[in-house]
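Single-chain item
Fold in token form
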Amino acid sequence: MTSCAPIAWSPEERVIWHDVECGGYDIDLPLWLELAAATPGAPVLDVGCGTGRVAIPLARAGNPVTALDVDVTLVEELARRAAMLPVKIVCGDARELDLPSRGFALCVAAMQTLQLLGGPRSRARFLAAARRHLRPGGILACAIVSELESYSLSDRHETPPADHVRRNGRLYVSHAMAMRVQPHTIEVKRWRIVIGEGGRRDLPEPEGVEMLRLARFTARQLEHEGRAVGLTPLSRREIPATDGYLGSEVVLLRA
């Protein structure tokens, strides 16, 4: 994520913003748990793990999890949260995936993680690496969005409700105020504000705008790219939309 108005958020605040914008999403968890339950106790790889939204429930269900994310602040927080669980933490780029352990039964790329990796070449690198890390018959499961419509608060369009969480006496609010859908990219603009006690914006740099850029591609295109590296597409699954989150297609690719 890159900032239109850069703000030097502290590590603690970066974790809070991640929790605000991602932590409340749970409608996809039953699917990941279902896929993991097909091979009880088998190792699972969670790509783009953040602070453990998916990794922790999978580990609690009995699957040892390797959790990968490029953001060191987030994986350090996950290490703290998962201290008593079978979760191995790895900080690294999914496009350069090269772990000493292989033979994963399931690799999960939830919440459009794959769309953060860039264009076709970057995806191909990840897909080939994921295949090398899966056991024969193992599944790569990727949630993506593609069929969307642009909106903008400034144009009086309806927008999703704001996400918020209260921490340390402050209210952290994030609102997706615009989405621009283009042929090959999706740009989501979020407004962030921190409100102190009594409604005061009392932090040195209390607000800013964050721009999230996703690659746009279809499920069929991803299946074609998977075939090119030796993965076999299975029947897709669906994750329904909620009031605050877009629905997703889940592409399943078998090694």
Notes: Residues 1-5 have pLDDT under 50 and may be disordered. Residues 151 and 179 are 5 Å apart (CA to CA). DSSP finds six helices and 14 strands in the chain. The helical segments are 11-23, 29-37, 55-60, 72-81, 120-133, 219-228.
